[in-house]
């Protein structure tokens, strides 16, 4: 049961803008961590771009689950977890983070902000606290509040893409992924291995 | 770069040397890995050392691996001579890149037997290989071979010693073994975290306990309690739960023997926490109890280990219920429940027989028929059932309180006498009511399916038995 990343993103007209992110990549091999971090950022932004306003979704990719919540005001958050981690707790976390974030950071800064300019420090604390879902606050409390049937479920990343679009192309085109990460993506893709990549 | 054969030769020899130097310079390397890097950059060594992590750039692997592989095979076929030092270096490089290459481990076994390598160094190499390949069967197999060497060494050294040195020597030895045992547990735990349901790591862990800590109740108790958090965070890791089942079974067998014979063995419930956590050979290091006479002491011990067994079952079922309710839809948890209940069911039957064959002098009530217990559990079952439809949550917590009252404080268990309420053991009715409470409040389809399967299992397997 593990949470790997938690990010707050603003969904713009065409692009998603990363505002703040926290990572826990301690379970990955040391030399892969930087590439994995880039991929988590890339994936989180992509998912926000492809999710419509005011909706919640969970996207399954190999043994990972990416949970996303895009609010009506375009403020969004994504948490990447393993498949063991309870979905319900992830959405509680997203709700909580977005509410807190929107209280602390002025909405004028959302479209143009970046992790360097935004001062919101609680993300790392939330990520580490929620590693153990039972210690994080009252797991059971929110059960009734969230209508699980309204969460859209995608079984692969590919199902988020438009017709004719390919994940490989998006990776190759991305400005945010370094050469090492692209090489890493290619090898992992070839081996189709788990634990190696998102 | 490095296309011609000669160039490859030079390159590879340099890389093997770089790896050897890296290990010499930094004895604290704790992880190895491959750095994705399709082409060589500048004229730099592909070996990188950061923060005690040793990385190999991926472009050189395709030169390095076939080269060291062939060299070792030629040596094995006696077509190419390598001195011992070269053998050590080449097998090290080879095994870090491909730890399932049995021949290389075998060469190292020979080197170890003629004293060129020491066992600790091989355990270390294996540990590093497991950071990149946490399942690697050959690495685990070699590890067990090395551990057996260590155990055998210790054994023969013990016999060589005279009487006077014996005590000090065996203390040193058992300290050494305790450290090794501790290290093995750590290695297994790391590998289990790196790869889910890592069967090889968990069965190695079982092997280690069986060969290095048999009969040592303290170690088993410690393992059981330290595993508690781990399984709570890995609720679909069947291998982890299987390990827990092994611990439980061994502890219960051991405690039941205590119960049958009348030796007093220290258990975790009476052990002071300051007790050296790693000291081996605890078993037979009986607790001297001056206050009690033989027969009384025997009686006390029987009662104590009986209570401990009951407590173990009770706590395991509580843990299991808690996890099933918190994390719906994991089959691993349900099959763990089955296993524990089955274990309990058989233990109870066996001991019912055992007690009556003892002339019935033992009134410690293992039987279902104990009126006090039966009513308590029946009442709480009924309570659970009717309240569930209103509010499952509230009822679960009530049930917990009832259990809490009946569970004696572990520190008091020494003073426990007949007639004090023992921990609530699981019963068939309490299991049925657990299942129906899940079915009543849970709409997760997987969870419902597992609950129904468990009910069916209770009906057919447990219910049918006399």
TrEMBL record, chain A:
Its main location: cytoplasm. It is a lipid-anchor. SUPFAM superfamilies: SNARE fusion complex, SNARE-like. GO terms for molecular function: SNAP receptor activity; transferase activity. CDD domains: Longin, R-SNARE_YKT6. Residues 138-198 form the V-SNARE coiled-coil homology domain. The keyword Lipoprotein applies. It is found in: Cytoplasm, Cytosol; Cytoplasmic vesicle membrane; Golgi apparatus membrane. One of its GO terms (biological process) is endoplasmic reticulum to Golgi vesicle-mediated transport. Pfam families: Longin, Synaptobrevin. The keyword Membrane applies. InterPro entries: Longin-like_dom_sf, Longin_dom, R-SNARE_YKT6, V_SNARE_CC. Residues 8-131 form the Longin domain. GO terms for cellular component: cytoplasmic vesicle membrane; cytosol; Golgi membrane. Keywords: Coiled coil, Cytoplasm, Cytoplasmic vesicle, ER-Golgi transport, Golgi apparatus, Lipoprotein, Membrane, Methylation, Palmitate, Prenylation, Protein transport, Transferase, Transport. Vesicular soluble NSF attachment protein receptor (v-SNARE) mediating vesicle docking and fusion to a specific acceptor cellular compartment. Functions in endoplasmic reticulum to Golgi transport; as part of a SNARE complex composed of GOSR1, GOSR2 and STX5. Functions in early/recycling endosome to TGN transport; as part of a SNARE complex composed of BET1L, GOSR1 and STX5. Has a S-palmitoyl transferase activity. Belongs to the synaptobrevin family. This is Synaptobrevin-like protein YKT6. It comes from Larimichthys crocea.
From TrEMBL, chain B:
Keywords: Prenyltransferase, Repeat, Transferase. PROSITE patterns: PFTA. It holds the Pfam family PPTA. InterPro entries: Prenyl_trans_a. One of its GO terms (cellular component) is cytoplasm. GO terms for molecular function: protein prenyltransferase activity. The keyword Transferase applies. Residues 263-298, 392-417 are annotated as: Disordered. Belongs to the protein prenyltransferase subunit alpha family. This is Protein prenyltransferase alpha subunit repeat-containing protein 1. It comes from Collichthys lucidus.
